Automatic annotation (TrEMBL):
One of its GO terms (molecular function) is ATP binding. It comes from Hymenobacter glacieicola. Keywords: ATP-binding, Nucleotide-binding. This is Phosphonate ABC transporter ATP-binding protein. Transmembrane segments: none annotated. SMART domains: AAA (SM00382). Residues 9-233 form the ABC transporter domain. InterPro entries: AAA+_ATPase, ABC_transporter-like_ATP-bd, ABC_transporter-like_CS, ABC_transpr_LolD-like, P-loop_NTPase.
Length: 235
């Protein structure tokens, strides 16, 4: 099991592949516990593919890597994927809420799927995460009664249910207007300040300038790292 000094992500000479095509090669980087990094790069440069590899939706065919202490090679085809996913919070641009049930039931669905028991315990956890994202009064609402920003907060609450070590976010502010994007970003900063590592793919350079952090950039099949060699942010 990981110790407190174990990074949450460790990739060494990793190959990120889509089918038979190499998207990124020789990817080497480490994300420490509680660290925050952006993931940038042009459309099609490999951000989503890298994130998918990290949550074992794509295999790691060459190189080595661990996420939350789980070795990635061969993991995507094993029955251990759910154990990895319980250590992660995964947030996509399109919210993927279940629109046929309330906010509380969306969260309950995940608690039930991840082995929680005890009605009172589950209600308590749902209240806690909704409070955390500033939606204490939204439990009984249906997703369509919420704004886009509020729906994204529910998605973030859902990702926090199992106290993840790491949040992987793919364009979490992509469909939101600038003010709402800023409030979602502040929420990510708060969550990160409380100790959860965050890797966030984004095209929003304004947010990066406003909340400067380490930047990983997918470019021409490689991953550049601002912590090793600073680069211009412009696309
Ligand atoms: N399901 C798939 N099957 C085959 N190739 C894919 C698949 N998804 C993406 N690709 C290809 O992999 C490459 C990287 O795509 P990826 O979605 O990782 O880029 P991205 O940087 O996340 O782009 P965007 O900013 O548009 O989301 C692209 O060439 C893309 O066409």
């Amino acid at each position: 099991m990981p110790t407190s000094a174990t990074p949450v992500i460790e990739l060494h000479d990793a190959y990120i592949m889509q089918d038979v095509n190499t998207v990124l090669q020789k990817v080497t980087f480490t994300l420490e516990k509680g660290e925050f990094a952006y993931l940038v790069g042009r459309t099609g440069s490999g951000k989503s593919s890298l994130l998918k590899t990290l949550y074992a939706d794509l295999p790691l065919p060459a190189g080595s890597g661990t996420v939350a202490g789980f070795p990635l090679p061969k993991l995507s085809s094993s029955d251990k994927v759910p154990f990895l996913r319980r250590k992660l919070g995964i947030i996509f641009q399109d919210f993927q809420l279940l629109f046929d049930r309330s906010v509380a039931d969306n969260l309950l669905f995940v608690l039930n799927a991840t082995g929680w028991s005890g009605k009172a315990r589950k209600q308590q956890r749902i209240s806690e995460v909704l409070m955390r994202v500033g939606l204490a009064n939204a439990a009984s609402k249906m997703p369509h009664q919420l704004s886009g920003g509020e729906q994204q907060r529910v998605v973030i609450a859902r990702a926090l249910l199992n106290e993840p070590l790491l949040l992987l976010a793919d364009e979490p502010t992509g469909n939101l207007d600038p003010d709402v994007a800023d409030s979602i970003m502040r929420l990510f900063v708060e969550i990160n300040n409380a100790g959860t590592a965050v890797l966030m793919a984004t095209h929003n350079y304004q947010l990066i300038r406003q909340y400067p952090r380490r930047v990983l950039k997918c470019e021409q099949g490689q991953l550049l790292d601002s912590a090793i060699a600073p680069f211009e942010l412009a696309l």
